[in-house]
From TrEMBL:
Keyword Metal-binding tagged: yes
SMART domains, A to Z: Lactamase_B
Keyword Hydrolase applies: yes
Single GO MF annotation: hydrolase activity
Domain called Metallo-beta-lactamase: residue spans: 14-192
Protein name per UniProt: Metal-binding protein
The species this protein was found in: Paenibacillus kribbensis
Reaction catalysed by this enzyme: 3',5'-cyclic CMP + H2O = CMP + H(+); 3',5'-cyclic UMP + H2O = UMP + H(+)
Length: 209
């Protein structure tokens, strides 16, 4: 079964939102619908959205949640440690950057995510890896050989840990002891910037040695 992956670069922080489709092109999953989601909304106009999956609840990753949920009636999945962040502009960070975002508040997520959980969506299985450090409830989604890492691991970079709930030790533990245990051929789709691979980051990421 093939997984079609389209990325949308959304909002002032250029957040990657991902639109995933399986063998049935009419059904899709969205990962991290960021701010200014007009292009994404147009792309899903005639699609059934089975779920919105959130890697974490920082404002630049959740800015499009309500618009898409209202348009498509789809449930939102988020780690339990950040359930309160959707409803709180202070916790999701939108109050901290008024030049980048108005205060963002959405309805709570319908479903919690947890380590090791498996979600069966669009004919594929998404395994949940709890990968804290950038934020306490950060998760990565593994679907076959494709990993959606949010703001944990980037091409030759790692997520910042100076935001509320961030912790450098947790971030490096998540990368070294979870993500880097995956196969070198796993493609990494990050929350910002270009895609990469586990093998490339093991060999070239200057932050992880």
């Amino acid at each position: 079964m093939t997984l079609s992956i389209r990325s949308f670069n959304l909002g002032p922080l250029q957040t990657n939102a991902y639109l995933l489709q399986g063998d049935d092109p009419q059904r899709a999953v969205i990962i991290d619908p960021g701010m200014n989601p007009g292009a994404l909304l147009r792309a899903i106009e005639h699609l059934t959205i089975e779920a919105i999956l959130l890697t974490h609840a920082h404002f630049d990753h959740i800015g499009g949640v309500e618009a898409i949920r209202n348009a498509k009636g789809c449930p939102v999945y988020l780690h339990a440690l950040e359930q309160d962040w959707l409803t709180s502009p202070k916790l999701n960070g939108s109050l901290m950057w008024p030049e980048a975002s108005p205060p963002i508040s959405t309805e709570p997520a319908e479903y919690d995510l947890a380590e090791g959980q498996q979600l069966n969506l669009i004919g594929h299985t998404f395994k949940v890896l709890h990968t804290p450090g950038h934020s306490p409830g950060s998760v990565s989604f593994l679907c076959g050989k494709d990993l959606f890492s949010g703001d944990v691991l980037f091409r030759q970079g790692v997520g910042r840990t100076d935001l509320p709930g961030g912790r450098e030790r947790d971030l490096y533990d998540s990368i070294q002891n979870k993500l880097f245990l995956l196969g070198d051929d796993v493609t990494v789709y990050s929350g910002h910037g270009p895609k990469t691979s586990i093998g490339y980051e093991k060999a070239n990421n200057p932050y992880i040695r």
